[in-house]
Automatic annotation (TrEMBL):
InterPro entries: TPR-like_helical_dom_sf, TPR_rpt. This is Tfp pilus assembly protein PilF.
Length: 394
């Protein structure tokens, strides 16, 4: 069994009013999702409402409130009390890649990072603790099922210290918060702050992904629609809806949704890749070229977005594309050893030994583990010897 490690960090956080990097409101206000027929999809009998996802039963609520207001916690600030409760309750929490409502998570002590964020938020609501969220970019687990790349967002939850009423009206540039997270790694890349509505959209889209993996494309479609009810500009939900139309061979509708997604300002790489697949199926060379140009020039906030593209390009023997994608990834995450080794392999394959040697020398700077350092040194020695051999006159 895997056990959670909830991390406690006392951090200086820029106040939410300063750091929420939302897109330009005027730009977003001018965009509206396409209105397309849903006749191709069968409406599920029921879909969870937000209140159901955040629901905790009376016993769970009382258990938490008794702890929160206990004499043992009396000297702790509110956010510390909530952290302590989670630390004690979830000591044996099993981390698994599944999405559960708050009640189930607290009953069964299991779930993924979104589940932990949801449970934390549900408890925080009971005692009026302000919660914030950030997207965290991690090296994804790669799995392919029915040509679907399986990945997920990682969320870090912040419990903000209550504002000092005596300082109201003054400019607050820093704000303390406690961080709730699974297995934080030094190599994690911290993304943007996200609004509660964006978090709600992510919850629904995760459920949509679960449905899709179970083969229920109709539920996936309607769950993504609910995600867009929370945040109409959440690109992964737009991508999911376009994919579901594609699966129904409703190419006109799929194109409308892909086109809408291309106007949004974040998380576009996966959407562009899926749109490229549709353009190829339709043999629309002009559209295909346009999408390829956008992919090559795009700069995604998430460097790991390029990893799936690189792996897929290798699988399809598109080695020049794979090389480009690995290089884009390593520009932002040069410490990602799997990508370094893959790119070295591609350089060797095309007999570009000087580039391979240079990359290994750079990668050594990020090899802190003895085993990793030994692996790179072995590769470097082999490359140097090989270059020496081929440079000798015959």
């Amino acid at each position: 069994m895997d056990f959670t490690r909830i991390v406690l960090l006392l951090v200086a956080m820029t106040s939410q009013s300063c750091v929420l990097h939302n897109a330009d409101p005027q730009f977003q206000a001018s965009l509206e999702p396409p209105v397309t027929s849903i006749a191709q999809f069968q409406q599920p009998a029921s879909l969870p409402e937000l209140d159901q996802l955040f629901y905790l039963n009376d016993k769970q609520q009382q258990d938490f409130l008794n702890y929160f207001h206990s004499s043992a916690q009396a000297t702790n600030p509110a956010e510390q009390r909530l952290y302590n409760y989670l630390q004690n309750k979830l000591m044996y929490f099993s981390y698994e890649g599944a999405n559960y409502p708050a009640q189930v998570a607290l009953e069964q002590f299991r779930g993924n990072c979104m589940t932990l964020a949801l449970l934390t938020s549900a408890l925080a609501k009971l005692v009026n603790i302000e919660v914030g969220y950030k997207v965290i970019y991690q090296e994804p687990l790669i799995d392919y099922k029915d040509n679907i790349f399986i990945s997920s967002n990682h969320i870090r939850t912040y419990l903000y210290k209550a504002a000092d009423e005596s300082k109201q009206g003054s400019l607050i540039l820093q704000r303390a918060a406690l961080v709730i997270d699974y297995f934080p790694e030094n190599t994690d890349l911290v993304g943007k702050n996200i609004s509660p509505t964006r978090f709600y959209a992510m919850l629904y889209n995760n459920l949509a992904a679960d449905a899709l993996l179970l083969g229920d494309s109709d539920s996936a479609f309607f769950l993504s629609q609910k995600a867009l009810q929370q945040d109409p500009t959440y690109t992964p939900a737009v991508n999911m809806i376009a994919l579901m139309y594609h699966r129904k061979n409703a190419f006109t509708e799929a194109m409308q949704w892909f086109d809408y997604g291309m106007k949004l300002q974040d998380n576009q790489i996966t959407l562009l890749t899926n749109y490229r697949d549709l353009a190829a199926k339709m043999d629309n060379q002009q559209l295909l070229e346009k999408i390829n140009q956008q992919i090559m020039s795009h700069d995604d906030d998430n460097p790991y977005a390029w990893l799936a593209l690189a792996i897929d390009a290798e699988r399809n023997k598109q080695f020049s594309h794979a090389r480009l994608y690995y290089k884009k990834l390593l520009e932002k995450a040069p410490y990602l050893h799997n990508a370094n080794l893959a790119l070295v392999r591609l350089y060797v394959q095309e007999q570009n030994f000087s580039a391979a040697q240079k990359l290994v020398e750079q990668a050594i700077n990020y090899a802190y583990e003895p085993e990793r350092l030994q692996l790179y040194n072995t590769k470097l020695a082999a490359l140097k010897q090989h270059r020496k051999t081929i440079q000798q006159p015959h």
